[in-house]
Amino acid sequence: MTLPCPRPEQVYVKVTPLVAGTLTLPDWAFLAPVDRSVKHMVPCMCFLVEHPQSKQTLESSSHTNNRLMFDLGLRGKAEDYIPQIQAHLSHRYPVTHQPSAPETLRKNGIPPETIEAVILSHVHYDHHGDPQQFKNAAFLVGHGSMDIVEQGLPGRGSHSHFDKELFHDVKTLELSPPKAGSIALNYRSSSFGLSLQGDAKWESFGPFTAALDLFGDGSIYVIPAPGHLPGHINLLCRTGPQNWIYLGGDVFHDTRLLTGEKNISTWEENGHTYCVHLDKAEAERSIGRIRKLGALCEREGMALEVIVAHDNVWYENQKERCMK
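Structure (tokenized):
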């Protein structure tokens, strides 16, 4: 098992974190064993990913990169959520919604209208942001996401309510079931918002049984990361000859789960057992594959940085890298 070497004239991408709101989360809902009194205010991070354009695309574009977002954090206003999510947010105070992802982008000279694609790790309220503000973007979601938006997940906790109008007037594309060798998304028929050609297929990649080479140039891979929610996907970005960044969404919420210092927690409520992950065993396997990726990178002399959406420790140590 090896990772692909850089190609001749390999393309590299730039990844810039943004904080789009904050939540206050109790450790006991995510980690075990822990002190049940401990809470942390955590960021809702999303990421601008810039991919160099082809010469043909540059001729008709006002900027020099394909601009993608991975996740969008919280909505800019609490009142824009459905009532069930507003009620859930009352248990996550203190909460901040500002600045939102669109506001931070505009402040830095990047109108949301210039974002060509938004890839959502999953459709929970603290990741989908305000889709309608990205008027020219195609939204890419993992397989099963649209069923959740339309049908919900009854009885799965107060955080698992979904807005049926989330993608109203938004071009949304759902990936096929991840199986190596099968078509992941037909770019020609879907009119995906980027300069892509041909039928993209799921292929095995390192420790992952299926991955999608988004541009076909080895720069960005969509990685299925099941367990947290149906359709949960991650993004692996090649940022240099020996450098990768793995954007993990909610594959875990604390790096001590990746190192093995802590375990995924469960709790009892009204006679039922709950977990922040819909499938705890599958979430553990997803974390295990990231560990294997890290070991593989180390063996091959490559650097791997893993960033998940709510890692307050990473944020406190690296906040200067975030778009302000």
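The chain has nine helices and 17 strands. The chain has a mean pLDDT of 92.
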